[in-house]
Request: fold
Amino acid sequence: MARQTTGRETEPEIEAQRPASADELWTAVRVDPVEIALPKGVGYTLRAYRPVDEVRPTDVSEREDDVFPERRPDPVLVDEDETEFDDEDAGFDDDDQTFDDDGSDADESEDDESDDEDEETDEPEEVPVFLGRAGKVYLFHSAEGLVEFVRSDAEHDLTQLDTWPELVKRISAEDVVPLPEDTYELDLVVKNLRASHDVWDAGLIIQAGEIARDLGYALRLESIIDALSTGSPLDELDEAVRAIESGGISGFLARRRLKKIGTEAPPLGWRQIIGNISAAVDWRD
Reply:
């Protein structure tokens, strides 16, 4: 499916204009510039990912009727086609009721993998933090405006980062060039979903889901988290378009599933999400 454009710079142009010094800066401070296009404008902001135990959530105590939900765990996928465990395949000897060497090696390998999984599980989850405050994300129409704000002494959620002082010293307007994966065209989502399934833009929808989930969590917007939670209609849409992007038999089956999704609910659901995001934006220049 062809990617729609909005007249902004194309992805190759963005990559070509980002200097190597900017890549070095963002890697060093572990923060990235982000571009978000909304129905009322296009703006820049900053986003970082940090272990959940290293950052404090944004303070929304003054916002009414908003409870911060616990982040839902990722679903455990089970392969229904998985065959049963076979004694012979495991190297089990019925006569002496012992495992042969091959079976022992397999067990040791499985134990090692299990230990590795346990170690990975112990690592705290990384969560998104945006340039903003009190449940708002700050957007800037220009790179210059963003840099001027960063260099000010204004309070916001990113000041808690250990790399923030370094970013303040080094940032320039030339560094504010988001990569394609950090560029989100939310202004196109509803229009695209109002068209037929055949022209739905999988990349557009997937990226929209990623930024919406990040903003929902970082800004503590329960309505967005619920709308995109595991098993929700919009989450099923997201899973289907991801399968289509991956291709193969899973993509073929996903196309069949996609046809069962009506053309009315997705645009309505995304219109609400984008409206909630827009309401949480604080334009700063």
